[in-house]
Amino acid sequence: MSAKKRLVYNGRHGLPEGTRCFWCGSGDANPEFILNPGGSPLLACCNQVEYEKAKAFINKDNKVRTPYYLVLFVLLVVNLFFIGMDIHTWWSYAPLLGICLTVLVWPAVFTHYEFYVRLGLVKTRRVIRFIACAVALLSMLAALSVL
Q1: What is the DSSP letter of 113?
Q2: What is the residue extent of each domain of the chain?
Q3: Secondary structure E strands in 3-136
Q4: What is the CA radius of gyration of the chain?
Q5: DSSP label at residue 15
Q6: pTM, whole model, 2 decimals?
């Protein structure tokens, strides 16, 4: 018997009620494509293609997450320095623009993967990128208003 067949979730085989696809967010997740067997919360996908994409995302995220958070931390410290020193020049908005561009490149702002499940990874990343673009536009407009 394979390892997937032996796993029991909530006292029964298969997926718990309401398990959504990690990649697309649809409600028809397949018990054969579980990203974290035995894990909590359960991350499952609809099909093999989405399973491979989600697995690739998780692997890349595990490699990129630490440098990503370090870059965000440095930009945040510089931004707080400019705010604390009450500097109002056009270049004082550069750290905020850098934060937005960093989030735009790799929109992994959530620390736990279960936050992506409600809408699905693809839609959640689109929403995060849209918000990052809006804040970047506002920071550029604020920089232009200082000129």
Answers
A1: G
A2: 3-146
A3: none
A4: 20
A5: P
A6: 0.81
